[in-house]
Amino acid sequence: MAKPKLGLYWAASCGGCEIAVLDIHEKILDVAAAFDIVFWPVALDFKYSDVRAMEDKSIDLCLFNGSIRNSENAEIAHMMRAKSKVLVAFGSCALEGGIPGLANLTTKDAIWNYVYKESPSTVTKNGGTYPQTHSMMPEGSIDIPEMWETVKSLDQVVDVDYYVPGCPPQPEQIWGVIEYILSGKPLPAKGAVLGATDKTCCDECLRERKEKKLKKFFRPFEIQTDPNECLLDQGIVCMGPATRSGCGALCTKANVPCRGCYGPPPNVTDQGAKMVSALSSIIDAQDPQEIESILDQIVDPMGTFYRFSLAHSILRRVEKS
Amino acid sequence: MVTINIDGKSVEVLEETTILKAAEQAGVWIPTMCHSEHLEPYGVCRLCSVEVVRGKRSRIVTACNFPVRGGMTIHTNSKKVQWLRQVIMELMLSRWPRVRVVKEMAERLAVKEPRFPSLERDEAEDACILCGMCVNMCNDVVKAGVLGFAHSGIKREVVLPFDERSDSCIVCGACAHVCPTGHIKVILEDYRGKKPEFTLGPKTPIYVPTLQAVPRVPVIDAESCIHFETGGCEICAKVCEPNAIDYSMQDEIVEIEVGQVLVSTGFDLFDASAMAQYGYGRLDNVYSSLEFESILNSTGPTGGKIVMKSGKEPKAVGIIHCIGSRDTNHHAYCSRVCCMYALKFAHLVRDRTDAAIYQFYIDMRAFGKGYEEFYNRLLDEGVTMIRGKAAEVVEGCWQGNGEPSLKIRCEDTLIGKFREVPVDMVVLCNAIEPRRDSDAVRRLFSISKSPDGFFLERHPKLDPTSTATEGVFIAGCAQGPKDIPDTVAQAGSAAARILSVIAKGEVEIEPVRAMVQEEYCSGCKICNNLCPYIAIEFLEEKKVSHVNEALCKGCGTCVAACPSSAMTGHGFTDAQILAELDGLMI
Amino acid sequence: MAFEPKIIGFLCNWCSYTGADLAGVSRIKSAPNVRIIRTMCSGRVDPAFILKAFQLGADGVIVMGCHLGDCHYQEGNYKTIRRLPFLRRLVKGFGIDPRRLRLEWVSASEGDKFALLVNEMTEEIRSLGPLKLSVHHEIQQPVAHH
Ligand code: SF4
Ligand code: SF4
Ligand code: SF4
Ligand code: SF4
Ligand code: FES
Ligand code: FES
Known about the structure:
The complex is a heterotrimer. By secondary structure, chain A is of the alpha/beta class. Chain A is about 30% helix and about 15% strand. Chain A has helices spanning about 15-20, 25-35, 50, 70-85, 90-95, 110-120, 170-180, 200-205, 250-255, 270-280, 290-295, 300-305; strands at about 5-10, 35-40, 60-65, 70, 85-90, 135, 140-145, 145-150, 160-165. A five-stranded parallel sheet of chain A has the order 2-1-3-5-9. Chain A has a two-stranded antiparallel ribbon with strand order 4-8. In chain A, strands 6-7 form a two-stranded antiparallel sheet. By secondary structure, chain B is of the alpha/beta class. Among the domains of chain B are: about 1-75, Ubiquitin-like (UB roll) (Roll), CATH 3.10.20; about 270-435, FAD/NAD(P)-binding domain (3-Layer(bba) Sandwich); about 440-505, no CATH class; about 515-585, Alpha-Beta Plaits (2-Layer Sandwich). Chain B contains 14 helices and 25 strands. In chain B, helix 2 runs antiparallel to helix 3 and helix 9 (about 340-350) runs parallel beside helix 10. The longest helix of chain B is centred in the last third of the chain and has 21 residues, at about 485-505. Chain B is extended and about 120 Å long. Chain C is an alpha/beta fold. Chain C has one domain: Rossmann fold (3-Layer(aba) Sandwich). Chain C has helices at about 15-25, 45-55, 75-95, 110-130; strands spanning about 5-10, 35-40, 60-65, 100-105. The interface of A and C includes residues 149, 191, 263, 267 and 288 of A. The structure holds iron/sulfur cluster (4 copies) and FE2/S2 (inorganic) cluster (2 copies). One FE2/S2 (inorganic) cluster binds near residues 33, 43, 44 and 47 of chain B.
């Protein structure tokens, strides 16, 4: 029997997910042995045209990481969808927009203006030059992909079969997923989240937690935290309670609050709103002014509560004013 | 016990009894002037002097403080005693010729003109006879130690310290009470903020709350009782034969666990001084309905007599309906009971006086069983009904004799004329309003109020006695103005509702409850502090939270708070609400 | 066609919903623009519902509960006075005028206040104009992952 075909792709992301695949260490050899890798631009020299030439549904498994930020990301997403039997949104960017999704807090114009004109390290001539999607060169015309206004998750562009969360997904979870697929067991229902569990980060967190009542929020650098006590109990905004478990509560083990990279747990659609609801429930104040001053202690609520999930939240992006 | 002989009668008395008491027991009268059974004998007037014979010796002693000895022979009316009394009485009479108690005693002892001239002729009817009862009362019984004697001989007098009003005086009035001549007076200006003649509350520190009280036993008002002020008095304890008085009793807060509560906290009477035009609190003889009710009461301040402040019977009485009711400036609603009690007032005034009676009404609302008939009867009794809300009450005077009166101005809408009606007394039919503490009570039981401020029933027609809070029922004027039959009916129905739950032995609760889906709960402990009913417990062994469904009332606060949406609320799940939202946005 | 604001009202069962009912029973006229969702307590109103309402095309959201101290569940609305201001920060963060989100206390006896607030809110939103969000044009709704 021919080996199953595997494709990997990297759209708008930092590349950490690709590294994470390599972080399964020697098991990568098992992957190479088990699969026939037909597409992996970062590691192997395949061309888009090679894949385009393949028959639809001829790739058995595609691990697609990165959010959809420009026309090229979208084009490849469509292509991989067509060619793959199973398309997996791999990592938080593909799943929920991830860090690139934070671009939805502002506009494309604002970003370009800063990057190509106003940033202190930009040397501008004639008031700055913006990249053009289409330019004429003596040799002929050149087209580059068009950057979108709004960053999207993979499932906002194409139909996705499974999701593997994490920024990046944890190697042992990745191996778990691959192992499962290789085992030949019947595949889980479409839309399932793999490499994670149904509870939240707190479930895996080893810190001792109490019934909560908060009068003050701290930023992590402002206090010396007790390594054994729940960070939230100590006044640090930890996204753990509203974040799907699977990472092993990694950050909290390193004395940093969970940032929420595994995305919302199963029944939650909006990680930010849910966290706001939970936190406001445990704030210990009844006076409107005191409440406002406590809320003021949370600097950058949008970035804190939607760090990874903005593009996949209910409202998805900030409206241009 | 010892046996003695008084005026030839042999009596057996307790040892150490005074001669006076022994004589009383023997049925022999000894005149006294400075003795009170509530005070230690003082022996100052000497009027009780008697002759004691023992063997051959005889002596004169004062009966009020001389203890008997076995075998004593006492003469209370011997020549010697008679002579002595004559002299004492003449001396007293020469000094206090006009004092009633002195004159009466002199008369009784057949003393006519005193033979002594007086240096100081005190002609007042209520002069101090220096019996010292007030001083002893104040010092020994009340223990306030305010009154005392100054000087001696003819200059002796009862004084206040430094002749000034004393801060130690607790204004108990015991001195005035005990003063035999009425020389000491307590002038009551104000009794706990109420005009003295209309205190509906107790008039003495120890009192029976109402004649209908259950149990009908007296209680002591520690605020006004002398004993609690000075540690003295205890007269009630001395006179109470079964020894039922216990000053050491304390207020007790008794906690009783109950499953259901009937809130029937009643109402407050609208304060008519808020409507200055009717002169309440400003003009004499303008009364609120409740004050008038107490005038009518046979145990009330006037003993049930309808009299004005002057003590005279009024020539005309005006009864003004709807004070604060049916008035958008105060209460828009009808108080429902005023028309009928106004008719009752009219009937009783007609019964007890010859006064003309005027009723000023907007509409007559005689809606109940037998009420219309009563109204017709009143019309036959000759009560003048004036349709029109009285505009104001002013001072006026009677035509003819010019005696002062009150005048009610109104528009008589039946004849279309402005009228001024002279009356002596005005009775206002004050609105029934929610009690001033009703908001606090409401919050205590988590019940709502209707726009008029009365407690809100679950349904005005189908469920008029229950409230939005399970197990809390309402009845009577707390729910809205109503008369006695309606109150009794509503309270009876509420009681039946309560009993039916008790009889069933179990309660049905709404299925709207929160529940933890354990497979999603990570035990973050966000929810554990939130529940007002402490329904959410944390299961340590499973490391998940759990809702006690019997305690949960289904508010959904924890459901909204649970960051993993492990908590879900039956009846109001996220999916249900979102589906509703979806439907509404079409 | 003139702009008719769509407003979603989240009303607690015991005070505000009864108050709204009273407005109806008392025949008090009010704008028909507020579409009501009943919850047992204002404390049940999950901020996500409000964002969802905006996503689905509401031009405004008004949450009504019992007056402070009057909550049928004693303190549910104390959660609400923290949730709404907190959420308002996110709403502002999303570029939505915070006037489009209101929190008001309406007791069971305040039918008139309910009508007044509804009219007030409707006029306010009318003057703010329709809420236009880019998410309205997106094809898919975000779905929970299973
Ligand atoms: S530190 Fe964070 S992840 Fe750990 S228990 Fe506390 S809230 Fe949960
Ligand atoms: S603790 Fe939170 S932010 Fe850190 S890796 Fe895990 S899910 Fe991501
Ligand atoms: S808030 Fe939710 S996840 Fe946290 S302990 Fe309670 S039920 Fe469990
Ligand atoms: S729904 Fe309300 S009453 Fe029930 S457990 Fe949650 S907080 Fe308590
Ligand atoms: S009564 Fe005995 S001395 Fe006055
Ligand atoms: S029940 Fe109305 S706000 Fe809680």
